[in-house]
Task: inverse folding
């Protein structure tokens, strides 16, 4: 049984030296080989984590009437508790394939750690493209390794490609390199890939604004008001992208950077996303983390995030013209319905859930840019300032 | 001595005319005698004669010769046979029949050898006359025939299998398509090859069942013969199951209904199959196990890579020792092959286990973990793919 146990305290402090992870890799291989040489079928136990379940009824609260540990674990969607295990063995072909990929990625990781080099997930894919066949195979293997070794991805020296952007009233340094956003408020800076190297954070901003996509509007906002604007990608790059599947979803570096900023600066954080199922999903990814990386949600989620817009209820409040509205597709409706089942909505952000219900009820969507239909400066001069001032965020 | 079946004799007669029939009759005479009998077949060639004449002598020390069995010889030489054959008869202490032919001696010898090896424990001698360097002496020594003792049922079965294929009209060079209908490359395969080279895998299983102290044991022996093609893809061409002995008292009808006999057959077959798998690594693996085995080379490559690229020399030493390798310096391929063997071995081991005792590989998601349509493992939610697509 290949199962590694690691003291969680080390992990919290994030101070494990490379040599420890090298040792963990070695332990894993050793256990695997021992099984093989003793005529046992190797079994790799992988804890499964999730950041929500589909119990939208809120019965989670009722379970506290019976606070036995087993009941608590079985009904509570805790981010930090494993929800079942998967056991990979050489009995099923899909497991053999997955184990094959897992070990191949582990081999790369072991080399990265030994040589103290960093690679992105994409780089790893391109080392053996024919073997992996698709990026998701590498992604899954990396997540599996993180769960087995009980560590975060950056501990494996696997980094994001880096697509997050930051601008506004902020100054910081990363590995000796200075990021002076304050002096160039119209300039968008890339969020550093090695977030753990970020130091000397200084800011006079009043709040942090997360936007789905960096655009001219948000740039104007950053330059006029004392805010820090963070986005997962720029609108320009999204326009160039042929595949919109990943648009606006924050990568690990962006979320870790935000967590660092909020932890250091203690600023309020607002999320501004398109009024559609994707926008809402992006917002939940910032606040609750993603399902794929639920095992690391503790280090990636941002419970401080408040939703500032665009709300489905804005549609009537700001009299958006029909030409700005698009009907929800069948897929989008299905996605919305599925999202409504997420247990955390009712439990933690019931107002978000009400807005999403409204989205489904109205059956139409619109982008942030639609708010500028009456005036180009409406978003920056009226919409956001008024909402913050009146506390119209949820 | 083994009894010949009529069809074998008939087949052989196509080539050897009456010889097998004479041998058959000689065996019958030996059987009738209470004494230990001797049956000899001697081929004597006269290489200097033109055409080359081969004299075949079949003699026995049995009893009860009868002229009718040699009746056909009275009409020889048969013009239909090209006048190749002639014959003589001797009756003395035993019986001896002598035939002469101008057939090619190598063909004759091969046919006799195969026939006698299969059918009878006997001496076969070949005399090359006065030539100084005889090519053949005793082809089958009497001592070699110990393997034809009644206990060697499996050998008889192999032989029977060969006969079965003959019955389907095979010759040495052609394959019966109905017998070998799977993906065989006929150009480099002949049916006799697996038999001759020992490629036939033969194992048996004996199942016993004692009903009560009063009744006799029921014994069922199942023998399974598997021929494996030389193709790298393991391909099982046929499998025959024989029930050699069923030393059983008649089962009462109610017990027959209960399937007691059938369960005994099943048990015997199962034991034979287990025996076959036990003695022949990699044989009769399930298609599923074969699929998983196909991952072994890649897995072995990666695991050996993890071992050899580690900068932890203690770990390396431990792994090398676990693999049973000795020394200091190892080629990557050596380690890889050892790991691969281990992987295949555990897969095989697991495949032999009964289905229910194999470890379950459960999926432990009790509820709607995958309910959301977007939760496919494409990880785009992580967002990095967006930039990857842009690259």
Result:
């Amino acid at each position: 049984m290949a199962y590694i146990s690691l003291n969680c305290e080390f992990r919290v402090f994030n101070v494990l030296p490379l040599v420890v992870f090298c040792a963990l890799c070695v332990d894993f291989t050793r256990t695997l080989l021992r099984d093989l040489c003793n005529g046992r079928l190797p079994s790799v136990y992988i804890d499964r984590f999730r950041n929500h379940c589909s119990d939208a009824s809120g019965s989670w609260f009722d379970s506290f009437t019976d606070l036995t540990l087993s009941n608590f674990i079985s009904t509570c969607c805790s981010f930090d508790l494993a929800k079942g295990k998967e056991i990979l063995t050489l009995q099923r072909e899909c497991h053999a394939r997955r184990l094959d990929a897992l070990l191949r990625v582990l081999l790369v990781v072991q080399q990265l750690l030994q040589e103290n080099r960093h690679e992105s997930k994409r780089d790893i894919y391109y080392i053996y493209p024919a073997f992996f066949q698709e990026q998701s195979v590498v992604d899954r293997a990396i997540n599996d390794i993180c769960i087995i070794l009980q560590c975060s991805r950056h501990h494996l020296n696997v980094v994001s490609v880096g697509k997050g952007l930051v601008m506004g009233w902020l100054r910081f340094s990363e590995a000796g390199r200075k990021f002076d956003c304050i002096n160039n408020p119209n300039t968008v800076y890339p969020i550093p890939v090695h977030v753990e190297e970020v130091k000397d954070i200084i800011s006079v901003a009043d709040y942090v604004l997360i936007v789905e996509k960096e655009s001219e509007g948000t740039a104007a906002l950053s330059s006029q008001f004392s805010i820090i604007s963070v986005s997962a990608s720029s609108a320009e790059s999204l326009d160039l992208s042929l595949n919109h599947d990943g648009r606006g979803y924050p990568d690990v570096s962006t979320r870790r950077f935000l967590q660092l900023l909020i932890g250091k600066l203690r600023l309020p954080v607002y999320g501004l996303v398109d009024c559609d199922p994707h926008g809402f999903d992006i917002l939940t990814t910032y606040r609750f983390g993603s399902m794929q990386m639920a095992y690391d949600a503790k280090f990636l989620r941002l419970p401080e995030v408040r939703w500032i817009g665009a709300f489905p209820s804005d549609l009537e409040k700001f009299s958006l013209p029909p030409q700005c509205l698009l009907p929800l597709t069948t897929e989008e409706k299905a996605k919305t319905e599925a999202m409504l089942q997420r247990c955390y909505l009712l439990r933690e952000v019931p107002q978000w859930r009400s807005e999403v219900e409204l989205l489904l009820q109205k059956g139409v969507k619109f982008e942030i840019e639609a708010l500028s239909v009456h005036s180009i400066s409406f978003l920056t001069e009226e919409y956001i300032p008024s909402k913050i001032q009146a506390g119209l965020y949820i | 001595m083994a009894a010949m079946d009529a069809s074998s004799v008939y087949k052989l007669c196509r080539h050897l005319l009456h010889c097998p029939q004479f041998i058959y009759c000689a065996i019958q005479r030996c059987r009738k005698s209470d004494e230990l009998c001797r049956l000899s077949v001697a081929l004597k060639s006269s290489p200097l004669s033109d055409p080359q004449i081969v004299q075949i002598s079949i003699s026995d020390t049995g009893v009860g010769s009868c002229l009718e069995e040699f009746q056909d010889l009275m009409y020889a030489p048969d013009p239909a046979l090209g006048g190749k054959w002639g014959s003589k008869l001797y009756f003395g202490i035993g019986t001896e029949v002598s035939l002469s032919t101008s057939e090619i001696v190598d063909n004759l010898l091969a046919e006799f050898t195969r026939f006698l090896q299969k059918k009878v424990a006997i001496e076969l001698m070949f005399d090359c006359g006065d030539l100084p360097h005889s090519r053949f002496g005793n082809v089958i020594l009497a001592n070699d025939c110990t393997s034809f003792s009644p206990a060697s049922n499996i050998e008889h079965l192999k032989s029977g299998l060969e006969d079965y294929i003959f019955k389907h009209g095979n010759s040495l060079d052609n394959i019966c398509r109905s017998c070998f209908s799977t993906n065989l490359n006929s150009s480099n395969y002949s049916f006799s090859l697996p038999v001759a080279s020992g490629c036939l895998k033969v194992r048996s299983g004996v199942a016993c069942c004692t009903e009560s102290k009063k009744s006799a044991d029921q014994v069922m022996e199942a023998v399974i013969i598997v021929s494996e093609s030389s193709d790298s893809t393991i391909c099982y061409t046929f499998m025959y199951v024989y029930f050699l002995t069923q030393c059983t008292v008649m089962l009462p009808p109610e017990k027959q209904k209960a399937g007691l006999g059938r369960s005994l057959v099943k048990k015997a077959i199962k034991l034979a199959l287990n025996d076959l798998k036990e003695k022949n690594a990699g044989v009769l693996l399930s298609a599923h196990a074969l699929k998983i085995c196909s991952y072994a080379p890649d897995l072995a490559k990666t695991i050996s890579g993890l071992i050899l690229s580690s900068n932890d020399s203690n770990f390396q030493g431990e792994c090398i020792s676990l693999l049973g390798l000795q020394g200091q310096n190892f080629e990557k391929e050596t380690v890889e092959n050892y790991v691969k063997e281990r992987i295949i071995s555990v897969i095989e081991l697991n495949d032999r286990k009964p289905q229910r005792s194999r470890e379950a590989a459960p999926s432990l998601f009790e509820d709607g973990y995958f309910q959301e349509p977007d939760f496919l493992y494409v990880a785009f939610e992580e967002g990095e793919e967006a930039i990857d697509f842009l690259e």
Observations:
- Chain B touches chain A through 60 residues (CB under 8 Å).
